[in-house]
Amino acid sequence: MSTKLDLKPEIKVRIPKPKPKQQEIIDSKAQFKIIRAGRRFGKTWYAAISDILSFLGGHRVLYGAPTIEQVGTYWRIICKALQPLVNSGLYRKNESEHYIESVKNPENRIKAKTCWNANTLRGDYADKLTLDEFQLMAEDTWNEVGLPMLLDNNGSATFIYTPPSLYASGVSRARDPRHASKMFIEAQSDTTGLWGAFHYTSFDNPTLSKEMLALAARGMSEDSYRREIMAEDDEIEQSWLVHGKFNERLCLIDRIPIPYSWPVFSGHDFGKSNPGALFVAQNPGPDEPATSTGNIIRKGDYVIFYEYLPGGGLSPSQHAQSFKEITKDRTVIRSVGGNRTGEDEVRIGYAPHGWVIVEPRISRVNAQLERVYGLYDLNKVHVFNDLKRFVDEMSNCLWELDDEGHVTDKIKNEARYHLLACWRYIGSDFTPEVSIGKRANQGNSLRRKHGRLPTSS
């Protein structure tokens, strides 16, 4: 598509033609638009096309994205389209600052910059703001800087995102990893016409090969396919998540040092191919450390601090040695693992190597989960966000649905979730009788010497 500007001499600008779904968003009269779309839908291309049109209409446009790679893609698109204006001498381009502006009216400008929080967005202003990969930005990007910059001119804003997972929260600057998802839900419920919510999948890009998309999907996890391709949000499917009660906004935290005085518990899942273990510390008080989310770890709260998934081919002796290294200089209270029936022989095999594992007090999976849910309800469980595999399992683990789409009480592909099994075993063991200060598991060393706690194996 081409646009003629009211300039002397006349200048023709060629703008990339939007795809039909992109045109739907452009045609919307909503002042605030939020777009939830799958990968390769053309989100950044849409942003560039829409912003070029606004710029040519005389607006001051600001595009923000959290990485220089995304900014670079956007910048190349607008530079190619607007180069005739720069060549005319009526507009100037600044490559280092990534902006093009009118020589006579510098208020008419289009600029791209990296931003991920309020501080990185400060220093600019606009009457058209576009925030790409918004799910990776801190909430204050919009609340503290973006919104105020539009108040004086009654400006407009567009938010673009792909549904995040708990796994992605390690690279996100957001306190609440699903803040973009929640904004989308609010926009959907708007009845004033002020907000527009748009949902598109990767299949909505007509230039992408459906066969190649289907082929790519075969190598993706179910969770990745739902988010990356179909752009489905967990906020909408919260009841499908087995561990949906976990409050990641408060309890998924940056790593802090675990004091050596804190007692430790471990959960174990047996298997020749994928054995696993999870290590949990409990705060005995009186100190209650603050976390990166503004929450505190209260006396009696638990912190999941170490995940162990070494792969197959190791003996009980080798596993036990690793457990001892992980917990050196720490008091291990209790180690729980395996099913109550059928895995006694495996448990017994660890004892000669100095690591005693006992059977869970509760045998049924759903009854174990009820105990864990009770801890979630009280926000008593904190998880370090660098435990990528454990957090990924939490975001993937779903209940099976029946033929009518109703949630059942059976975990879908339960055997895949080794670390969650470890957590069930030990989490369901946390009752009032397991109190701080009890005598440590005599089969394990009472105090194990270790210089510092490792992060994760």
Automatic annotation (TrEMBL):
This is Putative terminase. The lineage of its organism: unclassified sequences, metagenomes, organismal metagenomes. It comes from viral metagenome. Gene3D superfamilies: 3.30.420.280, P-loop containing nucleotide triphosphate hydrolases.
